[in-house]
C-alpha cells in the first residue's frame, strides 16, 4: 500500500491509500477510487484496509481482479459544508489521472465507488463529469478531466430532502440514531434553507436523484450500480430504487441489487462473493473511454 496526498501536502483530510493490483495485469491497471461512509461527518479511508462489516473484501476482490484501488479521505462536515466533499472527490480524480504514469494506472479506466455518504458522493461524480460548473468542480484547476467510467453506490443517499419520509414509507421510524442531523450538518441548515443563503445553494445541488432525472442537469450522466439492503433503516432502499429507475427511464446503463435482510452497512452486502463478482463484471463492461 502507498500513502499520499491528492491536494495540499500534509493535509490528512485529503489523503489517500493506494493498493496495487494483486492479480495479473497487462499494461496500466484500471483504477477504482473509493469514498468511505460516515454521514459525511466521520469515517476514514482506513475502512478499506479493514472493517468489521467486511468492506475490505470489496478492495481485496478488486485487487485480485487486476484493479488498483485508491481509498480517499475528504473534508468532513464539521470542517466544511457541501460542496467541499464533492470538490475533494473531483480533485482526487484529477490527481490520479494526472499521475497515471507514476502509478501505472490507465487514465481512461477510472471508476468510483462509495458506501452510504460515500455512495452519495460517488453518484454525484457519475452525474457531473466535467460539468464546467466551478461550484461542483472546485478550485483544483481544469487541466485534467473529472470524468469516470461508472460508479458503484453501496446503500448511498440519493435525496437528502426525502430521507425521513422514505424511512417511513419503507416501514421504519423517521428518525435514526446514526443520522443526528447529518443533512443539516452537511448543507449548513435544515430544509428549506434561507433564500439567498449558501445553504440554499447547497440544498439545490446536493441530490443525485435530481441529476438522475434530468437531461438538462446531467446531460452526460455515467452508469451507476446500486446495492442496498431491504432492511436498511438508516438509508432506506427506496433511495437507490428511485435513482435506478430514473436512470433506466433515460436509457442510461444502471443496475440494482436489493440484498434481503441486510441492514445499513451490513456484512451481508460485502461477503457475498457472487455479488462482488457481478459488480466487477459490470464495471469491466463499462471500460470504454468515457468520451467515446
Can you characterise this structure?
This protein is α/β, with parallel strands linked by helices. Helix content is 34%, strand content 16%. It has an eight-stranded mixed beta sheet with strand order 1-2-4-3-5-6-7-8, sandwiched between helices. The model has no long low-confidence stretch (mean pLDDT 95).
Query: Would you tell me the overall average pLDDT?
Result: 95
Task: Kindly name the structural category.
Answer: alpha/beta
Radius of gyration: 17 Å
Low-confidence stretches: none
The profile of the biggest β sheet is:
8 strands, mixed
First-to-last CA distance = 32 Å
Q: Can you give the helix content as a percent range?
A: 25-40%
Tally of extended strands? 8
* β-sheet strand percentage: 15-25%
Shape: globular
- Major sheet strand order: 1-2-4-3-5-6-7-8
Helical segment tally? 12
The helix/strand series, from N terminus to C terminus, equals EEEHEHHEHHEHHHHEHEHH
What can be said about this structure in brief?
By secondary structure, this protein is of the alpha/beta class. It has helices spanning 56-64, 84-98, 100-103, 117-127, 134-137, 163-169, 182-187, 198-205, 208-213, 238-249, 267-270, 273-284; strands spanning 2-5, 15-19, 29-35, 68-72, 105-115, 151-154, 224-229, 254-259.
Amino acid at each position: 500500500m502507498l500513502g499520499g496526498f491528492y491536494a495540499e501536502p500534509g493535509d490528512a483530510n485529503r489523503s489517500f491509500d493506494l493498493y496495487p493490483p494483486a492479480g495479473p495485469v497487462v499494461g496500466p491497471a484500471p483504477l477504482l477510487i473509493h469514498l468511505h461512509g460516515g454521514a459525511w461527518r466521520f469515517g476514514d479511508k482506513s475502512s478499506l484496509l479493514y472493517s468489521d462489516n467486511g468492506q475490505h473484501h470489496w478492495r481485496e476482490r478488486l485487487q485480485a481482479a487486476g484493479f488498483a484501488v485508491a481509498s480517499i479521505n475528504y473534508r468532513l462536515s464539521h470542517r466544511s459544508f457541501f460542496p467541499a466533499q464533492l470538490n475533494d472527490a473531483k480533485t482526487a480524480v484529477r490527481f490520479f489521472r494526472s499521475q497515471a504514469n507514476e502509478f501505472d494506472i490507465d487514465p481512461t479506466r477510472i471508476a468510483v465507488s462509495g458506501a452510504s455518504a460515500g455512495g452519495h458522493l460517488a453518484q454525484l461524480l457519475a452525474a457531473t463529469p466535467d460539468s464546467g460548473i466551478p461550484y461542483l468542480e472546485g478550485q483544483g484547476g481544469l487541466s485534467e478531466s473529472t470524468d469516470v467510467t461508472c460508479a458503484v453506490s453501496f446503500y448511498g443517499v440519493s435525496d437528502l430532502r426525502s430521507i425521513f419520509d422514505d424511512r417511513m414509507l419503507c416501514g421504519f421510524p423517521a428518525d435514526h440514531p446514526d443520522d443526528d442531523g447529518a443533512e443539516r450538518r452537511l448543507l449548513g441548515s435544515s430544509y428549506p434553507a434561507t433564500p439567498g443563503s449558501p445553504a440554499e445553494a447547497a440544498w439545490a445541488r446536493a441530490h443525485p436523484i435530481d441529476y438522475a432525472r434530468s437531461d438538462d442537469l446531467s446531460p452526460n450522466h455515467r452508469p451507476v450500480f446500486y446495492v442496498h439492503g431491504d432492511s436498511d433503516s438508516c438509508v432506506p432502499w427506496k433511495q437507490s430504487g428511485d435513482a435506478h429507475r430514473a436512470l433506466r427511464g433515460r436509457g442510461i446503463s444502471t443496475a440494482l441489487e436489493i440484498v434481503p435482510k441486510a441492514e445499513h452497512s451490513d456484512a451481508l452486502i460485502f461477503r457475498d462473493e457472487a455479488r462482488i463478482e457481478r459488480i466487477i463484471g459490470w464495471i469491466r463492461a463499462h471500460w470504454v473511454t468515457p468520451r467515446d
